[in-house]
Amino acid sequence: MRLSFRISGSVQGVGYRWFVKETAEKNNVCGWVRNTADGAVEGEAQGTVAELDGFLKEIKAAHPWAAVNKAETQEMLDLEEEEKEKDFYIKHTV
Q: What is the DSSP string of 68-86?
């Protein structure tokens, strides 16, 4: 299963992208994360339903200095290229 996520609130300037990357690796999730120009953090994550549930619960609430005001997710179609993805990485800000 693959989904897109967008997290809004005080999530930039506190190491949040690195926290998301570490959380993804801990939950065996692959994909990517990046800052957006409007102050949010967005990304895509792929794993089993249980892996994604654990990942999403943590990124919504577990960072000690971030304040998540809104978390949006949307299920995506698994694309052949993305199914080969093995890591979780940080992309440049858009």
A: EEEEEEEEEPPPHHHHT--
